[in-house]
Records
---
Amino acid sequence: MTRSFADFIGNDASVTQMRTAYTRGQGTHAYLITGPAQIGKRTLAIAFAGQVVCHGLQTEAPCGACPSCHASGRNGHPDIHLVERRDDKRTILTEQAQEVIHQSSLHPYLSTRKVFIVREASVLENEAANRLLKTIEEPPPDTVIILTTNDADQVLPTIRSRCREVGLRTMPLGTVAKGLIDRGVDGDHADLLARLSGGRPGWAIATSDDPAQLTRRDDHLTLLETILATRRTRRLSLADRLEDSRQVARTRERMAGAFEDWISWWRDALVCHAGCPELITNIDREGALRHAAVRLDITQIIAAITRTREAWAHIDANVNPRLAIEGLLLDLPDLT
Ligand SMILES: [Zn+2]
């Protein structure tokens, strides 16, 4: 989990606030990093944690040379603890909060401080949040807690009021594209990534590092375009492509990813229909989008967005995913 402050595009004020907190002697013991999903909250938390555990804290941290920095660089500093929702759970459990409390009472292993990064503080179980609150109020002097959240309003107000809040915001697409180009991404690809990111540099950097994410999106959009070009009576077999025979949870995750991409495609169809194709996000799909915009009227496009959102909500509410996807497939318009 090596991350550095150099991994950021934009959000200069917030990044500088974290980077200089300790070197200026303005550090505190609890932070809440807020901002939309995949904007870079975890990256900022990990970069900051690397600085807090650096032995050269009083000078130019992270120094990159001390035993702590070496351990951070090897991806596993024993004094940096990442706490997140387990894959099969909807909340961060009380036992996980209890573990934070226990670990914070022990001496650090390698550094002079310990850092706990609690990802998505809004999904803390009530009891977990209440227990953690005590540690946030009166932490051991060598403990720093960093919480992150997509939605600060969903975090317990008592927790929120005891943290220093650091906000990350979406950036202009040009800023994201330029940041990617500075990292060696070629111009057209940087432009596509910036548009798809919706101004979230964290997503853009992660996707440029991991092309599999773009391949998944390509598969999702190709499937949608295939569905629309297939008569309704023949569509049901296409649902197989989103199913994972190994695990229902994976099928849900796969469908949620597909629905997100599909809604983005439909929004672009709406933009095309309004006569503003220069504003579309999925610029590599312009041909199919223009075709849909010509064939469909505005109510059909809006209905497709609403219906896809509904199917997504059903899957989230534990409806059988196969039923949810089949219902949606039959309701999407026919462009044959
Ligand atoms: Zn160091």
Note: DSSP finds 14 helices and five strands in the chain.
---
Amino acid sequence: MLPHGGLPESISPYLLDLIGKTGGPKGPIGLQFIAQPEKEKRYSKVKGGLDPLNEDLHEIAPGVIYKYRGKINKKGTVTQYGRILWTVTRLCASYCRFCTRGREVGLPPMHKTNSTATIAHKFFLSDEEIEQVFTLLKSHPEINEVILSGGDPLTAPEPYLTKIIQGLVKLQKQGHIDIIRIGSRLPVHNPSAVKGWHYKLLAEIKNPYIMLHINHPAELTEQTKEVLYNFRKISLATILAQTVFLKGVNDSEDTLHELFINLTKEGIRPYYLLNNDPVYWARHFTVPMKRAAKIWGKLRPRLSGIADTAKFIIDVADGYGKVAVPEGNSWKVDLSQYRDFKGKKHRT
Ligand code: SF4
């Protein structure tokens, strides 16, 4: 087993430059991308630390993770819509040391892995595998939402991503799915890699959503802002920001305040502040729950109603839901435990 999942240390020249300007390897950007093998291998023997969200177990078609299931009653009426996460590549423009999918993302070509995930074994899906997923979507009326993920879907070559997105757009027009989201960190990892064709392709989607992974205000550079502006103006995308709470990077009320306010100024809504997932190679980044809730509680009153749309979330370790952490400063709550969507108790 590699000391830190399979994550290679691969950093774009653009990010290297940003790291140099923001305190170097120990600065808030450097810590996110520069490997610290001693820390990353410290918990490699911990059971369940490779795939704590149980994604491999929930893969039902090539790259398709179906955890948030829809429901259909006996009369055939959809009573609850479901959504799939579709991992279409294992490549990113740089690799975040705390990546939840380090068991598959960025693996070098010859590396053997125990993961059963399709993209742990290939960089891209075949035409047949893509067709299998379209067929699945046609035969599951309870699935109305697709979240493209990976890796980073926007790093995929134009013909490949075009095939996937145009196929989804067709299904959207036919009424098989309603919502298409794209998870990406490319505007942060390497804004110059976002090209005109990306904007035009996403413009084909009806009401596209981009889930932007961004963790620190220094990531919102002029180049990144320009790319995000183009996605909003050319693709007519709604951009929602997802931020991972990371010790040493953004575990401060002032840092998160600056990030959320600046995102809001750019027309981007802070959406999730995510507790760091318990992959073994990233435990040194986890902010203890009591401290995280305290920061969160102090931050909320400082934000406008738009900036405070974010929820502080725990992605449940064995894969049963995203549970919002209540504001400890407003309610008297026991932050040491919570229940997931199936009613199971967990300790923080
Ligand atoms: S961008 Fe996302 S998928 Fe890629 S390395 Fe970072 S956390 Fe992992």
Note: The pocket of iron/sulfur cluster is lined by residues 92, 95-96, 99, 101, 105, 150-152, 185, 213 (CB under 6 Å).
